[in-house]
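Standup notes
- HV: blocked on the assembly model, inputs below
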Amino acid sequence: MGILEVKGVNKRFGGLQALGDVNLSVKENTVHAIIGPNGAGKSTLLNCLVGKLIPDSGSVMFDGQSVLGRKPHEINQMGISRVFQTPEIFSDLSVIENVMIPCFAKRDGAFRMHAIETVESEKDIVEMAEQMLLDVNMQDKRNMHAGSLSRGDKRRLEMAMCLVQNPKLLLLDEPTAGMARADTNNTIDLLKEIKDKRDITMAIIEHDMHVVFSLAERITVLAQGTPLIEETPENIKGHPKVREAYLGEAQV
Amino acid sequence: MFGLNQKDTKFLLIVVTLTLLTPFLLNPFPTDSAMAQFNAGYPALMQRFAIYGLMAIGFNILFGLTGYLSFGHAAFLGVGSYSAVWMFKLLSMNILPAIILAMIVSGLFALAIGYISLRRSGIYFSILTLAFAEMSYRLAYSVLTPITNGETGLQLNLNDPRVLDGVADTSSLPVPGLFGLKMNSTYTLDIGAWSFDFNVGFYVCAVIAILGFYMSLRIFRSPFGMMLRAVKSNQQRMNYTGLNSRPYTLAAFVISGIYAGLAGALLAAMDPLAGAERMQWTASGEVVLMTILGGAGTLMGPVLGAGFIKYCENIFSKINETILHSWFSFLPDSLESVVVWFFARFVGEGWHLTLGVLFMLIVIFLPGGLVEGGQRIASWWKNRGKDEDSSNQPAE
Amino acid sequence: MDAIILQFFNGLEKGSAYALIALGLTLIFGTLGVVNFAHGALFMIGAFCAVTLRKVFEISKVSLDPTKTDFLGKPLEVKTPYVEAWFGETIGSAMINYSVPLAILLTIPVMLFVGWAMERGLIKHFYKRPHADQILVTFGLAIVLQEIVKYFFGANPIQMMAPSDYSGTVNIGAILGMDIFYPVWRLVYFFFSAVIIGGVFAFLQFTTFGMVVRAGMADRETVGLLGIDIDKRFTLMFGLAAGVAGLAGVMYTPILSPNYHMGMDFLVLSFVVVVVGGMGSLPGAVAAGFLLGILQSFASLNEVKAIIPGIDQIIIYLVAIVILLTRPRGLMGRKGVMED
């Protein structure tokens, strides 16, 4: 049993079958990549996992519980954090506040009315957030406006916001999309570091084969809404089915 | 002190001092001087500063922090007024029960309207609140007449029961009070050519407004306030971070509704009548104007905006052409009449024009309102002599 | 039955005004992405164009008639409007009589200019600002415009007359064998607005300009990429929207005596109409305008009011709330417009 079990998930948009009978099992403490050409249904699948979309049929079990019909914040509270294609951070808040918010969410749940004490008086939260900034090497940017960070730092901050919650599963949606090579490599290093330091399960949706093969332990290839194959990176390279799916697009 | 850090404590103490000294500060000109018409230190106006300041502070908790622009807050003001007047009629002329009932009723009303309106965001939320407020206004005028007394407005009557007050003398209408202190009693202090009014009603409003300000300061600095800013900044990220934004926005909506209801109760306590026109959408628009004019999302901005608008309304509107002529009499006659004609458009009846123009200028050039203007001047002052003026750039 | 038919016609007339104002509002929103709170003021300016024209026509030459005396025994003052003096009494008095429809000729250039000036002078700078800023700055502008009008025309409503040939009532029930008398001018207004609405749709449907604008409404960026200077066309669109609002105002003057705050009064209603129809949807605005107009009229039937007291006051808002909650895109709007 994996920590995330997707069984027979279907999703149609009008006449378009976006996902057809998708089965996927993500084992605990592995990095699982989901790859596939454009329009293969990767993003749709991801959105089904985080509660943005509800599949027409099938089941999505996380840690023994169904996530279907739950709202994004409830799914996060179950232990799934998500990194977006373009970093989604609180641009109007300071860097430290950005990291404190997920800490509060982790400690106090989806809503708590603590309107009297100051933020600074929450010593444990402040400490937790500062430690996290230290971990991702951003302690010197503590009081900066998050919106004024460089793109790479925004990505780093978003990772920090997810990691500080100690999620059981971290979903990454093309974390290096649109990045320069140097930034991509930095991100790979950051993810490797995270993997080494923590017991964490990651599911990565990715286009860039370089990233996939640097990180993934298991790879699922998705084409036209259906998983073609699930294998280790070594066995994926040069697999005829994969070549077929990627024809004209491959950089394998 | 007061659960605040040093900087905020200092800030709070300054605000408290300035508020309590208002009767002095707003009457800087000797009573008989030509400038006396600019004095704003008379009770009715000072009360309005405090009351509308309070309302704007509350509105700012919603709009300034979460970015949800409500065009219906006047409805809560109106509901607060009606509740308070009913308390005066039925129970007692003491303002405490009136204030408490007004806060409860407006809070419940805000809970109901907020619960529905907050299902939508952006302009749709604004239109929903607008629709609810217009409905309340129209109903108050028409079918709810038994409660609101329609066009005449709800007023005190000599034969109202007032069960707690017992039978008092029936020759004149009673005055709202706080344990015997009448709201309309004023002590006038004459120092030389100056005269200063110390009015019970103003001080009651001022103390409540200070409490309101203090509460909003605590909210701004609290984790709750941080969550509200997170709502404004990125609701999607918030939801994917495990936070449910709806109860946060609803709480902010209800809190700001209670502030508005409280302001309505104070209006009724100063002058015990309540009319439906208080609920009209243009009245809601006025609160929006105050908040933006002063600086939405800042602590002091809404109070400054409220003071500014109420000052213009009461002082600019009193200036007429005769007064203008006396000011510009040093000019040659032809020029004088041109100048007077020009300025006359902006004062007296035309003070709305001043307001409209100022408001546009502020939205265009100073999106951060008067507070941003003040900050720019301050940083210009600090930087003068230096070449760089990078800190003058407005925040995006 | 009579009452129902009468209210139906009343609804058509109200709906015409709502539809015309909402049409311009949604046009501006759909093309420029701007929420224009000053749109009601444009309606008002149109109405005051009619007032202006009549006042101009009525400027009179004062001459003394020595043959007659007034009650004080002085020679009687005879006022002859210049238009009568210049064009002869028949044409001159007809001009005064027809000053409302004639004002259309004045309104079109005035509104095009006002629209152009507004877009170039102010709105242009707000395309990239948040909607809240747009609302606020146009709200400020609306205050300024109405204060200017108040200065020139005073605070009291100014009564305007329909041309005498159209000022009576007509029996609209005659075909059905009933007696239902209805003001002629209101029928005129309905047909007038139908023509304007038809004209706007035809313009957008059958001209290249309209095609580009419709394409821009659907996807602004792509149209921009095609090398079409969409901004210039959008400026014209603003003028057009202002023109429609102005025309709606001119012809409405005999129905509602113009006053300086009529713009604000209609603004809220027309916003509700736009939202119910769907932000950015032209057919939606028209349909919702008539729908709400008719609903409002029916709600003011005594029989309806007896069942639900006060419903006539709130029906429009009630419908808007229900629509917004159940179908936020409105009756005919595209999904996802301004939802964030």
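- HV (later): unblocked. Chain C has 14 helices and four strands. Residues 2-32 of chain C form the longest helix (31 residues).
- Next: hand off to the docking folks.
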